[in-house]
Every structure is written in structure tokens, then in C-alpha cells.
Amino acid sequence: MNRNHKYSALLISVMMIAALILCSCGGSADTASKESDAQSYVKAMLDMMCLGDYDHSVKFEGIEEGEEANARDAMIDDAMGAIEGDISDEIRQEYKEALTEALSKTKYTVGKAEKTEDGGYDVTVTIEPLKLFAGINDSSEEMNELFPENEDTSALTDEELNNRFYGFMVKQMKEGLQDPVYGPAQEVVVHCTPSGDGEEVFSISDEDGARLGELLLSTDTE
Fold this sequence. Notes:
The protein has 222 residues and is an alpha+beta fold. The protein has helices spanning 5-21, 31-51, 68-79, 89-104, 141-146, 158-177, 206-216, and strands spanning 24-25, 59-60, 107-115, 121-128, 130-131, 181-182, 186-195, 201-204, 217-218. Helix content is 46%, strand content 18%. The strands form two sheets. Strands 2-1-8-7-4-3 form a six-stranded antiparallel β-sheet. The chain has a three-stranded mixed β-sheet with strand order 6-5-9. Strand 7 and strand 8 (201-204) form a beta hairpin. Helix 2 (31-51) crosses helix 3. The chain is elongated.
């Protein structure tokens, strides 16, 4: 589908916001424990974004106990700015709900951390990309019905066009999530950077957040 990249843009935005905001506290003194802390941080960040909860042995700055799901929802709301053009509040809410459900069904495994020469840690994450639109393509009957050849779309407002398109995409997402299809497992190495005085603080770059976002949800229709 030639416009599926909009969903990828939104997910990447979510993960980049997470990478910038979610710093964890609670490091350990010895190297082995720090490596374990780095691994736990990356998993907690993914769990936070995808599930709205995480292992509370990791402490995220600025997120109070019991507010995990609200914090995740707020990040998704912030990232909704990736949507191009005006859409109705109803479609926007349906879009968010479908994305939230999709995130909850992502598959990832966080491997062990390895210390790097710069004092940081490389953490390998194995992801089975969730295919949001498996089996759908531009020539499908549903897509043809979306914008019939005999319809004068110039009479529609931008919001009407966007509502029709995003409404269709949300419908396809919801149908696909009833029986999720996953792509072959892929590995991505995330660089986890420690910083802070006394208490360890971990973070990852927005670039690594974007790479995770690109893999978690796939718009591949094959």
C-alpha cells in the first residue's frame, strides 16, 4: 500500500519520544550487574511502550507507580502529530486504539548486554515484525471501493478524504489483529548509554528508538 508509511512514521515517532524521555535509574557497582541493568532497561522501555507496564525493578524518571499506562498513552498522543492532514476526532481515537492494540501484540526478545569501548552497552533485540496489512494491496477490491474510479473526489474536503483513508486503514488493522501475522525474526543492536553521578541512569538514542519502531510493526503486505 503506497501510503502505509504513515503508520511507520507514527510508530517511529512513538519510539523516538520514548528514547528521549524514558531514562532509568538504579545502577549497580560491578560490571556484570551493570550489563544486567542495561538489558533490563531496554526491555522495560519496550514493555512500557508496547504494554503500558514494565518490570518495576527498573525505575523510570518522571513516571509514578500506577501511571504507566497513562504515560504510554500520553507518548502515543504526542506522536499522533505524525498524521498528515485533518481527521475527525472519532477516526483519530479509532486509529490510536488500533495502534495501541497492535503494540500490545508485538513480539520481541531482549538479549544480554555487552560492554563497549565507550563505556556503554550493546543490547541485541530480536523482533518478529507484526504485519499490520498482510494480504492487502493497492489493487484489492476494498481499496478500489475506497476511491471508486467514477467518483469525483475533488468534491471532497481534505478531512473527508483523510477520514475515508484512515478509516479504511484502521479497519484493516483491526481485522488483521484478530489473527496476527509476523515476519521472520530480525536482530537490531541498541546502544545503551550510562550516565549520572552516584545513581546509574541509562538512555538510548532517538536513532535507536527509530530503528526499533521500524521493526516492531511492519507495513509489508506480502
